[in-house]
What we know:
By secondary structure, the protein is α+β, with helices and mostly antiparallel strands. 40% of the residues lie in helices and 21% in strands.
Amino acid sequence: MRFVRPNYVADTNSLAWFKSGQINLPMELRHIRYFVVLAKELNFRRAAEVLRVAHPSLSKQIKDLERELEVNLFDRTTKKVQLTKAGRVFLKHAKTVLAKTDQAVLAARAAVGGQRDKMVLGSFGNLCSGFLPAAISRFSLSNPRVEITLREIDLGQQIAQLEDKKIQIAFTIISQGEPEITHLDQLTMFEIDPVVMISKVHRLASKVSVALTDLTNETVLCVSDNLSGGQHARLVKHLFEGRSLKAPRVKRVQGFDILFALAVGNQGVTIVPGLPNSPPPIGLVERPLERKPSDPKYQVRAMWLKNETSASVKNFIDELKSKTSRQVGPR
């Protein structure tokens, strides 16, 4: 049977043929994937970076798609990119097409009986090293056909990669009492107290513990917002605000290596979660913060999408839930 493209006007009704499946276009899946990413980012440069393609190539692919559909999917100006009415309709069904494609791939693999399911987890250095390897080991015993990949991701990027479905489970640190993210399910793995890391030659290095009032005139080093999503600085400020204290000067730096190097050089102090079995870098000492019962703790949380359908992800979450009492606890 040969399908003939109907005549239509370029509005939302012009996509009726797409909904009905009566379509014979030479578009490829990559056109649809490119469109969905651009519809999310609404910025050609950012979308090209996500897709790892050149900006001109992305622009050409979108124009080719619009030419095949004979509708404008985006309104473009020099300042912004917006979906048209037709674009919004197409986006809804394009997402369905991609989801069905993924399901078809899994079904095909299952039909030949052999290929393993895959699951990608976010990880972040020592934060996850205390519990994640053991959880993976236990999970693998009862789920031997699931291939797990760990992806080292800055805390500020984990939720974004989870929302983009590049990973299935993310881990992050949140100050106790912060509201949950409504479109994510969350599990608190454990709670930990904040500690201060200071140079061995710092004036406070000789103290057994450090009070927040000792730090109000210090420079507190935090990982930059683009690496931590602003979370590191927020956690620090939350501590002082909870005591109605003047917040110290916060200096943001590009990464933990730089942060610790500056701290060793006595260019500031840093407040971080006190991870068990994780000694401070050479040249620094770790001191507990003097606490009050009302002071918030840091919570390490696992997060996943509420609409997650993967049986492997659900089984792994069940493993985390059943074993949280065995996980690393407070210091």
